[in-house]
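Risk register update: the risk of archive-format incompatibility is retired. Evidence:
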Amino acid sequence: MEYTVNQLAKLAGVTGRTLRYYDEIGILKPARINTSGYRIYGQKEVDKLQQILFYRELDVDLETIKKIVNSPSFDGIKALKEHREKLLAKREHLNLLIANIEKTIAAQEGRITMSDNEKFEAFKRKLIDENEKKYGKEARAKYGENIVNKSNQKLKEMTEKQYAEVNKLGEEVLNILNEAFLTGNPAGELAQKAADLHRQWLSFFWTHYTKEAHRGVTQMYVEDERFRAYYDQKHRGAAEFLRDAVLIYTGMNIK
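Archived output:
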């Protein structure tokens, strides 16, 4: 079956303007233009639009979606399975939030008591789940099941104050690191402050701190493109700079 812009827009629950914009930026081209100058969409375009809307529902930006769906290696079935997994995870998180809200209402109405840890359980659960999906396999292979499980448990038991502090500290590490990077000196005062703040940040998650582990994790930042991209988001090479600063901070000489 074929559709005009208005017909497809109505079918998909989007605006005609959205479809025209998708055409303009090359994310969803019509199958053809008819003799009257109307954009005509076929089944292939319908399926592609569905994929695009799935990605949008998962908050993926249009430029990234364009690269994904227009890639010659794009696998529609594989993508749908990934959408399902992510949406199920999103649903689970929403269920946790709803349960948390219901408990909070009950607590405020005096029907139950609720600890401070319980108030933030859903938010911390989301952070743990995201970390598991992104880095869990590598972390468990490198540090072992027991260490990772203890780290997750420590996060679950954080108080409201500690949870706010660790988030603030993570931002401070990045800000000081970016300032230090401009000095070009990993042994300098700012760089060593960044290394110390990073140690403090790690200590919120680790059951105990060691210099060897600190050096190891910053080396992983350099080797793993996901971590490297996070630290290099403002200055390329910042992950290596942090690694070098930590080597000095922990008593290692670097050339």
